[in-house]
Amino acid sequence: MFSLIVGFFLVATLVLSAALLYKKSKKRLSVPDGVVCLYQVGRGPWAPSLSPFPLKMETFLRMHKIPYMNDHSGVMSSKGKTPWLEYNGQQVADSQLGMDFLVRELGLELDLHLSPEEAAVARAFRELAEENLYWTMCYESFVKNPHSLDILLKDVFPPLKIFAFKNIIGFFVKRQLWGQGMGRHSDNEIWTIGRNDLTAISNYLGEKEFIMGNNPSQVDCSLFGMLSMVVWQMRGSRHEQFVHDHLPNLVKYCERVRDRFWPDWEKRCKGPEFVDDNHKIYSH
Ligand SMILES: N[C@@H](CCC(=O)N[C@@H](CS)C(=O)NCC(=O)O)C(=O)O
User: Fold this and answer.
1) Fewer CB within 10 Å: C terminus or N terminus of the chain?
2) Residue 278 falls within a domain, yes or no?
3) Phi, psi (rounded to 5 degrees) for 145
């Protein structure tokens, strides 16, 4: 009897996921020339995205006052990931490749205040956040404390979708964690890695306004995207508690970047002030 029930839920979840994937693979709207369309997952309850990578990209678009719109349908890129962008008929998958593409396409003069040595440090911090810290966050949210997702997703998805998200996506994230390598460490080792990464960012930031000095640079988009999850959205996690208890400069840093580039923050979070901006063009 028990295996029958489990089997039923498994089949139901698979059917639901197939339906969701089909919906996401359907054709999208046309994007006006000169406007970037950012394809991303939905808004979060405490940050304007459920994921650090779209928040990175949207902060970049705002930082450079690039006209853009969002598509929150959740459609995946040609690489099977999200976020990705479309600009004048060209599609670019991956947050960093998308930003690099816009820098070339729009001739943005970016990070000119950085020496080659500083640019190297900025790159190293971006990789630390996106390729190392990120995986400790995935472990914390999907393996260590998957119930936290119930609260995170409750205003975003209906209960069945949360069930599918937690179980199907959780299963794939565990596989990714194993493939990437983070998932092979013990719980204590993973947390030590995450804590050391956060501490390294905090130590390098010190009292500076932005990570590379008093002017924002591209790497701030990446760090802000990642740290916003830790500071505001990973409620009940060790990461969240640690930054609030021990690394207040990271909290202040996030508040500073938020206040500068996201005056409409509350409206973009799925809380009481939320205003749906799907397909709305931001022209600054
Ligand atoms: N390096 C990519 C990472 C994007 C990424 O990992 N996106 C996740 C969501 S947060 C995703 O699409 N996962 C689906 C999968 O890996 O199958 C970027 O910067 O865009």
Assistant:
1) N
2) no
3) -140, 60
The pLDDT of residue 196 is: 98
Pairwise CA distance, residues 125 & 209, whole Å:
16
Residues of the chain with pLDDT under 50: none
For residue 199, give the 3-state DSSP assignment.
helix
Mutation test residue for ligand 1: of 72, 82, 85, 131, the one with most atoms within 8 Å of CB: 82
Structural domain for 20, as ranges: 2-268
Tell me what percent of the residues of the chain surpass a pLDDT of 70: 90
Domain CATH code at residue 117? 1.20.1050.130
Q: Is residue 116 in a domain? A: yes
Angle between the N-to-C axes of helices 95-106 and 52-63, in degrees from 0 to 180, rounded to the nearest 10: 20
**Any domain includes 218:** yes
Q: Does residue 276 sit within a domain?
A: no
In 230-249, which positions are buried (b, 16+ CB within 10 angstroms) versus exposed (e)?
Answer: bbbbbeebbbbebbeeebeb
State the pairing for strand pair 36-39/84-87: antiparallel
State the sign of the Cα–Cα–Cα–Cα dihedral 228, 232, 237, 240.
positive
Q: How many domains does the chain have?
A: 1
